[in-house]
User: Fold this.
Amino acid sequence: MKKALIVILVSVLLIIMAGPIGFCGKPNDPDPRFANCAMNVINSMKAGDYQNAVKDFNAPLRSKATPESLSKEWSKMTNMLGPLKDCVITHGEPETGPDSIYGVYFTCRFKRGISLDGVIKFDADGKITDFQMRNSRRFPACLLMSIAFVLIGAVTVGLCRLLKLNPVRPKIENPKRSAVCALLAVSASMFVLTILTMHSASPKSVTTTGMDPTLRLLLYLAPQLILILVYCLPMALMLRLNRETLRSAGLTASNFWKVTIIGLFLAALTLIASGKGGTHSSYEHNHPVAALVYCSLVGFGEEFLFRGYLQTRLVAWLGHYQGWILTSVAMALGHVPARVFIQGSDFPHALTSSLGLIPVSLLMGFIMLRTGSIIPSGIFHTFLGWVNTR
Assistant:
């Protein structure tokens, strides 16, 4: 009976989260003006005309991506992958950052059978603000990443023993009722988030050129501030309804310094392992503190909702492994809307790529189980996101 109830509840969660996507989640045809400019960059690089390739770059990006640096990177790429066979623009999507209003997504296929997915982003003046390419064959990378996450989990266990950490387990008076309320709250948050993400996929006319730095920062952080509200309001309502405290959601002062040390140590490992990173948007590159604040809102927001609130209740009701795994899958699937409406993926690809987040989601949940606090997983989540913006 309990297993059947779990299946029903998970099905409800998936329907609420993914229902609108099934009807509306088709990639958008790219804007011809931006698509033509993007193809000009790719064709110019293929022909070796790197001076022409950078002519539409904005000033901050051109300072990083010069004709010489593009020539070096492209030569390195084609030496490994062979000559470029063809390049297909897949879709275009509005962007949410303060520098970029539109992104053109494409796939390049090389002679040796490797495909690279990429995106070229534009500002309101039609200048290119960002140019990225990455391997679209993700299985080996995911495998290596999963091994790395297992090692990080082992480090977490070792640190807990070294610091003699006794995690505080929140006491849930009525685990079944509280878990059902948590599932409903998360489902409501995911539904609202899906609707907001759908509406965000509309072109913006605002330009940040000459904008006051404070307003530009607020524009950059606004989506995540809204995200925090969407996460917290249904959760706060259920906490009040069940007369539960924030302590029951992983926010506790107990073992504060120990769990903070663990979080910072894991963050340091992330920074060391990440290396220098690639070419990313000029705002994040030139404003690392703003990018760190942005990532902390994402990291702690997701950890608070999924790990602190949902996982603790599912664990109390179903058991450690069942609650841990179910929460990890739910959090991974919570990224489907953004992949459809922001990145422009079709639903099957968005679902597949979101399921690829299950290993890191399991790691975050494991850190919460071992420490009893969202602080270390929140810090780790923050820096894991931050290194990917550098």
